[in-house]
Sequence to fold (291 residues):
Amino acid sequence: MTTSEELKQLVKEKYAEIATQSKQQNETSCCGSGCGCATIDEALMAEDYSMLAGYNTDADLGLGCGLPTEFANIKAGDLVIDLGSGAGNDAFVARSVTGATGKVIGVDFTEKMIEKARINAEKLGFHNVEFRYGDIEKLPVSNSVADVVVSNCVMNLVPDKRTAFNETFRVLKPGGHFSISDIVLVGELPDGLRKNAEMYAGCISGAIQKNEYLQIVKEAGFVNITIQKEKKINLPDEILSAYLNEVEMTQVKQGDLGIFSITVYAEKSVETTESKKAAKAACCGEGSDCC
Fold:
């Protein structure tokens, strides 16, 4: 059985290779997996960033599955954290909204991605966009500092999603929020498709059921959980027909069953457990039950 650390190493090696490839190479190799699958006319999941302010072609490796920054309600002066920042695409889009008075921190655990992102930031002359090497399960960020957290097709690759969302909760300020695009499953996929999906796109292999994903977000302490956008990922017929019978193909293509890209929004309540404890201690003294 593959351990969490082994899975992380596989992801790290894969994305180190992707960092040296172009966007076109990554898109035609199925979410950058380099899996040697059938070539398709369009990227399987990637969204078009080119119309967004702050877009930079050198930072776009075509690895996303949504546009979280478009839905993130970022404001001028905000501190934004981008989880799994890659070459800096979402970070630079976020920076176009925060402006010079804000700050964007990108976190990634692939050294080559951090190196590429830093070079891109230097070329753009951005002094308030910082890229830190670190694990999403143990973010190199202090408590309660971020106004907004964004992430694009990364959480599904994290073995311990509960810890990752707990960390997201920790670094957000009370009243802060996140907008995260990710891949989830709906219904039990036919065995052939499930196995092939793992080969076909590495970014699908860590996906979990949509309901389970949203429950993990809720259990981390988030409120006002909303799906901002949802899109079914349609695998090409040549892939489906190779692994499914006609009945299964119909179920996957026409029903709700399948692989979906979702963008999820959630907030950290202003009144967190920590803030309530602090208010109580200030009012009555530590350990008192008077208020």
Remarks:
- The chain has one domain: 4-283.
